[in-house]
Amino acid sequence: MPQRLTVGEIMSRDEIALAEDDTRADARSCMERGRIRHLPVVHGQQLVGLVTHSDILAASFSVFGQVSRREEHQIFAQIPVREVMHDAFAAPKTMRVPDAARIMLDKQYGCLPVVADDRTLLAIVTEADFLRLAV
Fold first, then answer.
1. Averaging pLDDT over each range in 28-37, 75-84, 92-101, which range is the top one?
2. What superfamily does domain 7-134 belong to in CATH?
């Protein structure tokens, strides 16, 4: 049965996304509050990138030791996520689960944003979605 399933059938539906102008502080806050590691970035409804927990940590370490935690927060409150986001491979909702899993394994992705034909963000499919499927 998993051979016939699509990512549209297993994707996480409670999706949180950031706008390009949201800040790094917004991203960190969303991740901490939602206990998530991946945040799609949208322009309107269209996917334009992805911010990961690793991206936020890398940005934190770049100023680590040079400024206080408070100063770091003030800096992060001014820098938009478009400056830390990266391009994201987007999966159409009709992509078969085994194909998505292979891409995630081969590319070492923790998630795949799922989009409509016009790149409107629908949701994401994560490693946790695959674990739920396996269980």
1. 92-101
2. CBS-domain (3.10.580.10)
